[in-house]
Amino acid sequence: MFSLSSKLGQQTRIEIADILLKNVYITEDMHVERARILIWKARMTRASGTEHLADCIRFLSEAISILSEVHHGPNKEGASSSHQLPIAYCLRAFCTQEAEPNSKKVFQDISTSLNLWLRIRSLDVSEDSLPTENIVPLLYNVIDLMSVKGCTELHHHIYQLIFRLFKRKHVKMEVCLRMMWECRRLSHALCPSPISDAFILSLSENCGDKSTCTDFWIDCLKDSKSNLIGFQQNFHDLHNNFLRTSKKDKGPFQLDITIDDITDSASELISSASLSGHSSFAAAYLYYDLSERLISFGKLSEALSYAKEAYRIRTLLFQEKFKYTAEKQFEKFNDAGKISEIRTYRITDFQVYKSLATDFWPCGNFFWDINRSYLSRWNVLQCYLESTLQVGIVNELIGNGLEAESLLSWGKAISCSQSLFPFVVAFSSALGNFYQKKQSLDLAEKEIQNAKEIIVTNQREFSCVKCKLKLEVTLDKQLGDISRKQIDRVSQADGFLHAESLFSAALGKICCSAWKSCIRSHGEDVADATVININGGEVLGYKAGKTKLSVNKEPTESKGPMRGRRAKPSPACVSKDLDLISEPISRLTRSMRQSLKDQRQNCSNVPEVVSKKPSFCDVSDCSGGERVLLDTKNTVHGFCICYKGKCMQCLSVGVMESGSLDSLVSLKWELCHRRLASSILVNLGKYLAHSGKVHLAHEALLHSISVLFKSNRSSHKEPSVSELLEFIGKEATRDVFAIDRAIILYNLCRLSLSNYHCRESRSICCDLSHIPFTKLVSWLTLAFILSREVPIVFQKVSRLLALLYMLSSSSDEFSFDCDGKELSTSHWVSYFHQASLGTHISYQFISNLSRGHKPQCLSDKECTEATCSSCMVPEELDLPRLAPERTQDLVQFAREFFNNLPSSTIICISLLGGALNQLLQELMHIRSPVCAWVLVSRLTLKSQPVATLLPVDSILEDMSDEDSANISSTEATQVKNLERRWLCPWGSTVVDDVAPAFKSILEESHTSSGSPVEDTREHRHSWWKKRKRLDHHLKKFLRNLEASWLGPWRCLLLGDLSNFKLPDSVQKKLVKDLKSKCKMEVNEMLLKVLLGGGIENFEGEACVAQLSLRNGCYVGRGGYLYEEDSCKTPTAAANTSESRHGLALQLIREAATKLEQHDGCDNREPIILVLDPEVQMLPWENIPILRKQEVYRMPSVGSIFAVLKKRCLQGEPARSQAASFPLIDPLDSFYLLNPGGDLSETQVEFESWFRDQNFEGKAGSVPSAEELTEALKSHDLFLYFGHGSGAQYLSSREIEKLENCCATFLMGCSSGSLRLKGCYIPQGIPLSYLLAGSPAIVANLWDVTDRDIDRFGKALLEAWLRERSDSPSPSSSEGGCSQCESLANELAAMNLKGNTTKRTRKPSSRKNLAQSNVDGSGKMECNHKNGRKIGSFIAAAREVCTLPYLIGAAPVCYGVPTGITRKKGIEALPPSSSC
User: Fold this and answer.
1) CA distance linking residue 292 with residue 387, whole number of Å
2) Most buried of 862, 878, 880, 1336 (most Cβ within 10 A)?
3) Least confident of 968-972, 1053-1057, 1284-1288, 1450-1454
4) Is 1184 exposed, middle or buried (0-12, 13-18, 19+ CB in 10 A)?
5) Cβ within 8 Å of residue 903, ≥6 positions away
6) How many CA atoms lie within 13 A of 1153 on its CB side?
7) Distances from the Cα of 1313 to the Cαs of 586, 997, 1442, in angstroms?
8) Angle value at C-alpha 664, between 660 and 670, nearest 5 degrees
9) pTM to 2 decimals?
């Protein structure tokens, strides 16, 4: 016969079935056989394609109708038809799921089939002609479908049927258990626990009590290493010794599993089979579970690598099962008046492959081996969606918003197409969180409200009570956060009330009795629900102060989501055995109290709670150090707060030692529950603080600490506030609550600092009002370590630490001793400041660096990056890190950071507004209004850093003047191609508040950038008049920015003078004179900076006074400088001081004059700007003091290290030491000129000139992506003259995949603009090129006009070529360069030598930049003899523009200082003899 997979075979079988149905099985006594033929025909029909699903369902329905009559007839029970009827129901359910995923008939048919099976006695007696093992794959599909849909109420019945079938075939329960675990059929989708209560119950009914012991499970799984490791690691997050050393523990549960054990096991699985088999499925689960564990420990970078590997394997499995059509869409959404564009997907024709559609149908010649493991399509789909969600969430956590949005939108689209509502809600919740952090609050609210409605309308799909509550609590918490942030849009009363009701609903659900756990302390009983008097009783699970929070303990059913902005708060419910707190809270404010009164009417017993002083046990020494950093004695392995019962740590140890599976599962839920409860309480605390309820905010935060760690809910011996605070500040290794603790510590410190000077209210508040300043710094330091891989938290903590160290230098009230003898206050300020900038991007650079320099694996087919030993990143790479893993290593880590700085000066700039601005004003008692603060840190190798915190004046630039008064508004806006309005790439930042003129200038420039509609002389004149007016305004704006933001401290932004000898000699003499004549001990580094700035920067004696500051920090307090000094009454001592300062000023001016008279005083070393995303859109390179300075910009200090590391690794290690900066040959260029075909003048200007230079490239046509990627890899310079950044020809994703990339020159509109996405990584092509390894990118910050930018581009390229021609040829280089040798030693200290060990590596088609500068003798060329770099020519090129600011200020240079050299064998064409 023909194959079933062939079309002809399927058609032939269908025709045979038709003949049998029409001519053979037509009598009443042949109804059972007729039904079998109908099922067989349905199978053939389904195998022919999804377009015949309606016919397939019709055939199955007819078979069901026939079999139902037979089944209910006399004397029919026990016949073969007894199996055929439930089989038909099951098959119809599967077909209905494919045809109409949202149909209620799916559940109805499966429920009916199970009921029929459970009534069949023949399952246990061998008298049925149908092989019962053939039913097993059908039941596997049933449980997998119900699991992925979230319908768990039938699981117990399905497990019972499976066990009965295995018993009938004399298969041991141990074998059954192993197969069920191997395919992860013991729980349902998205469940935190890998084993459900339903399975434990079913197993115990069949195997007795022994099945609830871990020894039994370990014995069942011991024959498979991967199964055993997978089982054990699923419960390792319950114990703080996960990721431990090789030390062995005794006990029933092995606790010495390491990451290497897990990855080795996964690697063995993958190498033993193809990626489509069960082994790969099991390996993916090992990676997935490992990622979950690492997430809980805050190791997000490592977690992401394993999550991606699980996702990669599961994607392969998914693609082998399913096919579909996907269409990417971009929807516009109006978010509070701003038009946002969101990415969505449309999934159509989602179906399983024909060959797999009926492989489990028990009809025809089908036979099943009962000992065979089986992966159903639903099993694979569930795992794929879980991995999609995991990778999306981790990407969101590390700040990769673009990747997160793409993954989450994709997962939601697939979930919606199959009506998998638990996944739809999970993806919607994650997307809502993403949109909230992206500042798209309306969009976030819409996403979350839709998710709440799905839960309400699809209750059956959320039949797991705990999982449903977990989702509902998360959604309520998210809506509460959104409402808190939307308060400025509505009246404060309404906003606070709405936020309060949402947090109340979340608390009510988190305290619901459905969370009841079987884990209790000795002697603890389940108490009846009670209500505690609102004015008394124990508060928040610790010894409280005078103010009491209301507590409600009446258990209620979980209700649906609230509707409307004024939804009634849900009552909070709890039982005393709840694994959360002894007295859970529900109503925290006055508006919550009415429901309590109503609930009290239904309660007869209100027990009185007596507070007693608790006992407090600690496993570590409680002695603390005097310095800020935590004493290493306080670093403990785990936690212990024991009262009458057990704390979380001791409870975990007890559960692990008990060997009870029930307890392990309950403890796993307990961790999930506590983490969720803590996050709600932290967010509630932020809301209460925002609404002015400070003490209630204190209590909410203290409650969040208690929630994480205590276990006994019935005991009234609770820790005091001081004991909880001592506990939260302790450092622990392998902390499962690491991220949670970091968030709590940060919020505790912020709240305490916000009320630091409210001493009059301290007598009525709790101990949080008395926290010493040093303790706050200590807590933040611990939070800094704990959050080192959570960029959003890490940045906030780092910024606040920088400010606190800054304050310590300005006031005795905040002073403390800094840690590290060699590190001053300015060291710590600048270290934490740079850590707060571009944290997300630094991790992305480090990730790309590790991925791009793995050796090439010899077996790509079976290679998996996470496990393949030949693909692992060598330890010798020594990848950059942002923070150490322990506080005790922080001093050494910071010391190494400063010792390894690059040779170029780094300037970090942040603009602090909003809440931080208000906090600074309150802490420093500043009465005059301050709009914002600018924090500037200057980092230079082998010099003490300098840091300043200066108040910022608003720049209110008047955009109207006499020249523009005569321009008609109609004429001013009559331009072509302006159908779309200007979209601000940065959304809204503090710059818009303090300098709104900048956005106005760019918006008007965009409006006027098109050519006039009527090309008349009058219109051209008006057009140029307006453009020049805008140019003037931008120049004036930048001048005002420098004056009002930086004042005399603008000199901090200058690079060091290139002539080292004269400045050093002048400075040494000046220091000696100041000490002898003025009796001043000066900060030599600060003096050097001020001298380098020139005479014009010394505007008064106040500036001179700062030279005596020994810590290198300065904090301004209003106006330019000393507002407080101007109010002081003159005294004799003050007059003497002023006299000394006057003499010092005279000496400084004389020294500065001497420097200016020296040749080469304008030659300065380059600087690298590291700008906060809030200020990166400003053209800092064009403020007056930097207009002639060589300036580069980078997104973070970590990215500077990563780029230098990558450039060095691209060359031979021995040669890459010879230069601290990359070198390019501008003649080795590839150009893409006018690919859109509509910039004819630009093409005419450059095409012939490019050819004369012997450049390769294309003009007037679009190259393929392959051509462009090859050009970027094989040349030194890529030139782009066209529209935009060129991303329409080569996407950012493709660019980032490159292992190496040349320097780029992008002369399109806004080619260098970065789009801000809330707190996520900014998006822009320059960052993609940097990630690919490009040393420098010249690009435009805003839209430009073609002729002027062409002038700039040609001037800059010509300057580079002239510099190249002046460089020595490769053959003329003799000897070495002393500066190169010095820099080589510096690089050696930075450990940038690369990997010197042998490893297999794919040869590059490109000659590396370092290698390209080596002559035949093997000597490296350098540029220090005539040494200008590409950024040094930009200032002159700006001046050739007709509009030197409006157009000339737009180009900036991203990257690191990059030199110009001559490569052998590359020369321009000789001049043509023809005219």
Assistant:
1) 10
2) 1336
3) 968-972
4) middle
5) 941, 1165, 1220, 1383, 1386
6) 6
7) 48, 18, 22
8) 140
9) 0.84
